[in-house]
Amino acid sequence: MNEQQTSAYLHMGRQELVKLADRKKIPARKTARGFVFRRAEVDHWVEQQIHLLDSRRLEEIERGVAAHHGLQTDELLVTALIPPGGLAVPLHAKSRSSAIRALVRLADQAHLVHDVAHVVEEIEAREALCPTAIVPGVALPHPRHPLPFDIAASFVAAGVTASGIPFGAPDGSLTRLLMLICCKDERTHLHVLARLARMLHEPAAVEELVAATDADELRRAILGREHSALGAE
Predict the structure, then answer these.
(1) Which of 152, 159, 155, 151 is nearest to 101 (CA)?
(2) What distance in Å separates the CA atoms of residue 200 and residue 204, rounded to the nearest whole number?
(3) The domain 78-231: what is its CATH number?
């Protein structure tokens, strides 16, 4: 993508984008006609930066990505991707590995996973590369790449542990809310990630979800937070 296309994709001013590229703050290659960007590298950059962005920028990124891919920004996304039985309160796990396996098991029981072992392997490989505990108290585990053949459909599975578990948070804090994102394509993955980041941006949102006493209450809380995010647009 050229500068104009990338600035539209990120809903970012072209001058700001060029400044980031010139300072090597975003992956880009300089040519005689300006900077050029690979969409996959831009998506990965967003993923790495998403915990540092404010709610306004998250909304702008979601709008830009959605417009680029012809997606809707005014419809429920996260809630719609949670299958029946896709939530667990409490999530019975005491380690990062057991939590990942438990979340994948929820999706498998909903008949959404074709290859459980490979999906777990891909998620653990992503965590080894860079932990996804990017919001205090929350982790958003996901595979390194979309899984078009290992899952039946894109899904989100979530759980709240009875007590915090170490999930690789930069500050060493423990994680209680885990939301697994498994998508069949990049566009859905980035859209879901941006929406979740907006939903969980306020500490009060995390506190509300963690306070859920059962799966039904957690689903209602997630729905309420997504409605709030949509209402803020």
Answers:
(1) 159
(2) 8
(3) 3.40.930.10
